[in-house]
Amino acid sequence: MCCPPLLVMIRLSGMRMMALLLLVSQLIQSITLLMVRILFLQLILIVMETELWPNTIAACHQRGIASIVANARLSVKSARGYQKFCALTKPMLKSISCVAAQNSVDGERFVELGLPESQLSVTGSIKFDLHLSELLRAEAKALKLQWSGAQQRQIWLVASTHPGEDEQILEAFAAVLKAQTDALLVLVPRHPERFNSMFDLCQERGFNTERRSHSVSPHKNTQVFLGDTMGELLLFFGACDIAFVGGSLVPVGGHNLIEPAAWALPIITGPALYNFAEVSSLLDDAGALSIANNSDELASEVIALLRSPRRRATMGSAALRVATENRGALARLLTLIDKSLSVPDSQAGS
Predict the structure, then answer these.
(1) What's the predicted TM-score (pTM) here?
(2) 168, 323, 131: which is closest to 246 by C-alpha?
(3) More confident residue, 159 or 18
């Protein structure tokens, strides 16, 4: 009598379970390689930033398929993690055809982990190659008019926040309201599963709160406008006066600073910026970035910027200059890809 499938699975143990897991792993690898062959015509595998898959990269190398890590970045924290598994990391890096690093510091970390220097190119960050269309600019202008209203309210956008960060933001905003009673906070949590809890938190803290998903524009007495929609953050940046980029008051490492820079906005962050160390350094050196270590410092900086149109304009111009001067990474990356495509498969995997 045959056992039901579930019972068979339960009886598997030890080496049999390992064999099953290996089979599943090989199946996933085969499917991945099949997709690579379909999408890239058996010529090239492109992975983004730090998405390093040892089995897939090794399999591509064995089959003569070139591989590029595009817009590559590697923080100190991530480098330490890879160093712990150096027996796996070094062969993987040697199998990669090219690492197109965002900057020389991140590139050097790849080399220290085992990447041959000949396989490293510093191309810059492709996020600088952001194009704000005329249509988007027009939509942002109209949205700002809706949000600011007849009162011409000043708007503070807080983007991509994480747990433990929102509480500090709301503490800071309470202080801001004492200095500027008609200020509007547009709060956009990083993850959509937190939208409902964030709405509840704002109300619990006593703020008159509206949701973007329920209302196109805040009412005149709305204090917090919760950005609980997807795909609108870039538009929101164009409709505000000051931007705070989250993931930086908690140890997450920060988020994209280039989008607010492209809109010529004064930018505030917390101190945890290790995932965007190069970009934040460029903005800081240019005078476009202000770093607040806690809610008190954040409130003080927001109030100061709201009271000084000239300082907002100066920081915003500096931010835009940084964004503009560092464009061109995408063209350099495409050149590398084109060169890899022109190399015979047997050489790409050698």
Answers:
(1) 0.80
(2) 168
(3) 159
